Amino acid sequence: METLTTTTLLRECIRAQRAQGRRIGFVPTMGNLHAGHLQLVRQATTLADYVVVSIFVNPMQFGPSEDFATYPRTFDADKVALQAEGVDLLFMPEVREIYTDDLEQVTRVEVPGFEGDLCGRFRPGFFTGIATVVTGLFNRVQPDIAVFGEKDYQQLVMIKRMVRDLCMPIEVHGVETVREPDGLAMSSRNGYLDVAERAGAAQLYQVLGEVKAGLEAGGRDFAALEQQAMERLLEAGFKPDYVSIREQDSLRVPGPGSSQLVVLAAATLGTTRLIDNIRLSVT
Hints:
By secondary structure, the protein is α/β, with parallel strands linked by helices. The chain has helices at residues 7-19, 35-47, 75-84, 95-98, 119-122, 126-141, 153-165, 195-201, 203-216, 222-235; strands at 2-4, 24-29, 50-55, 89-91, 145-149, 171-175, 239-247, 260-269, 272-281. The protein has 2 domains: 2-175, Rossmann fold (3-Layer(aba) Sandwich); 188-276, Pantoate--beta-alanine Ligase, Chain: A,domain 2 (2-Layer Sandwich). The chain has 10 helices and 9 strands. Helix 2 links the parallel strand 2 and strand 3. The protein starts with a strand and ends with a strand. The mean pLDDT is 97.
């Protein structure tokens, strides 16, 4: 596995692979890799001939009071894991390689409808930060295929829309959330949970399952189901930001004929903000 840190060398390498007719697969990450990330890598290896993984902790998607400085960085372990998965190229740029100017002066990419809604309501600038960095990484790697996890469902929907709207020649693939045995979605931030918090964290997914069951049983009072779920999370010790039932493809509030739904939630346990979702079909 080759490790590069500059755009110039990355492009030279990609150009050489394309000259040999290889399809390029790409998995962008912020590192601190777990089994969920590695499942994305495995999916990329089945879809492409040459797989690039990036590790870049993106300062633009962190708010002033968020954990950019303390976000876990486990670069040596990440390299070992990626090499074991057969990754061809690891791109590990410094911040100044991605954002040559002061962050306040950098051109931004914004996908309408995400700032101010769901996670965007509680993390201003978050989705713009993601759209901006992913666009920059796409322009550097120029992949044929990009793979993202469904745990970050809003991010996945946003990136698919961005790729469509900007006519990027990239296939975006989502991979099902990888979970711990008790149902907790794997996340780099799970390491912030103490023992007692970790024992209760899986209740987030359990509550989503209860909403799903209510919908499958014919419940259509979405607001009531969401409110019940919020109350359940409060009882379990969470501080919920939202529980919301949306359409899968658009993330719009469902209408009478909506059948493909996703239930999304974000809640803080202790000091750790967790997100999760569950999809379903109704008639």
